[in-house]
Write a structure and sequence with these properties.
Bound molecules: fe (ii) ion
Low-confidence stretches: none
Number of helices: 8
Distance between the termini: 28 Å
Radius of gyration: 19 Å
Strand order of the largest sheet: 14-13-11-6-5-18-19-20
Structural class: alpha+beta
Shape: globular
Length: about 350
């Protein structure tokens, strides 16, 4: 599966301004007088930061921007990344943090515990084409319809006891009894209900699913989409990887010879037992305009499923719904399968990568 090429431009797209307005007004409910902290690093283009700065000013907010270093190793290593004390200190004053750089971090968890809201327009990473991603997946979609669908799918996960995922001849069974689904709708604010629904949200919308405590998954999966592991962003295996799980632990890596070897070697050298734990989350992409680019928008490609591996101790608190023991690791890595069939008990949610409109 080839990686698709987004629209990479060197100029500010005017369409980014109404996109930022939708994010602040409809998804974050930014109000006049609130303190907005924008955290970025050098991967974020100046015009992206300026737009989020300027639109917040237009809405009457007080805004500060802080740029920090590019974290070593990219998103995979977020659970063990070290952040400068000045960034951490600034976060203590913010009502709303716009995060273009951090993702999972203990100081973000602490900010939320203090009552701050956090919105991550690029899912913890801003890249030169994050503007294109946001315009396509937010401005050019019906984000409210995506939010409502994400909530319906989350409710289906909550109701079910067993999630069965079929990819080719591989079957993975996950015991999801007693676990609540979560919408991961990308919204902090529900304008229809006029209430805040989450303290932390990430774009593009949406990827409803479940957080999975230890020991729940058995069987095999074929990974034909993406593999986010080492060192940054992700790669797409030329032929499917075959991963086998026993009681919530990855026990065998087969399939594509190149990527199976690389993944096995990386995990062995990492020497972190927590990195084999998983899946720790299972999420269904439902954005009609998300593409398989190097941006984490690939997790929202319609009908695909992304599972996380390794650390859940930070995400579990950020989402706030996790039950049971949460795996801890120095890394959080992910894989995506593009054409799964998903059964929730005996309800068909997805058939070969196509959502079942009759149930969601
Ligand atoms: Fe993940």
């Amino acid at each position: 599966m080839a990686i698709e090429v987004p629209d990479i431009g060197l100029r500010l797209k005017p369409d980014l301004l109404p996109t930022a307005q939708i994010i602040y007004r409809d998804m974050c409910n930014l109000r006049p007088g609130e303190r907005v902290l924008i955290i970025a690093d050098a991967r974020a283009p100046d015009y992206l930061i300026s737009v989020f700065h300027g639109v917040a000013l237009m809405m009457g907010a007080e805004v500060s921007v802080i740029e920090t270093q590019v974290p070593r190793g990219g998103a995979t290593y977020q659970p063990s990344a070290k952040w400068p004390s000045m960034v951490v200190a600034a976060s203590t004053e913010a009502d709303l943090i716009i995060d273009f750089a951090v993702g999972y971090a203990a100081f973000i968890v602490e900010a939320i515990k203090r009552g701050a809201r956090v919105f991550s327009p690029g899912d913890g990473i801003a890249l030169p084409y994050t503007d294109d991603v946001l315009i396509r997946t937010i401005l050019h979609t019906d984000v409210q319809a995506i939010r409502r669908r994400a909530e319906r799918i989350a409710a289906l996960f909550t109701k079910a006891s067993l999630c069965t995922m079929i990819t080719g001849d591989a079957v993975l069974k996950v015991d999801i009894s007693g676990i609540d689904g979560f919408a991961a709708s990308g919204f902090l604010w529900d304008a229809e209900a006029q209430k805040f629904i989450e303290p932390w949200a990430f774009a593009p919308p949406a990827q409803p699913g479940i957080l999975i405590p230890e020991g729940r998954a058995n069987g095999e999966v074929l990974v034909d989409g993406t593999l986010l592991y080492h060192p940054v962003y992700h790669a797409a295996p030329p032929t499917p990887l075959r991963l086998r799980y026993e009681n919530g632990r990855l026990v065998d890596i087969g399939g594509d010879p190149l990527f199976a070897g690389r993944l096995r070697d990386w995990l062995e050298k990492l020497g972190d037992e927590g990195a084999y734990k998983g899946p720790v989350h299972l999420n269904l992409g439902i954005n009609p305009n998300a593409l398989l680019t190097q941006h984490p928008e690939w997790e929202r490609v319609m009908g695909s499923v992304t599972c996380g591996m390794g650390d859940l101790s930070l995400l579990g608190v950020l989402i706030g719904d996790a039950d049971g023991p949460l795996p801890k690791s120095t890394v959080h890595w992910d894989w995506t399968t593009l054409r799964p069939t998903i059964l929730l008990d005996d309800v068909v949610l997805v058939r070969e990568g196509i959502l079942n409109d009759a149930v969601c």
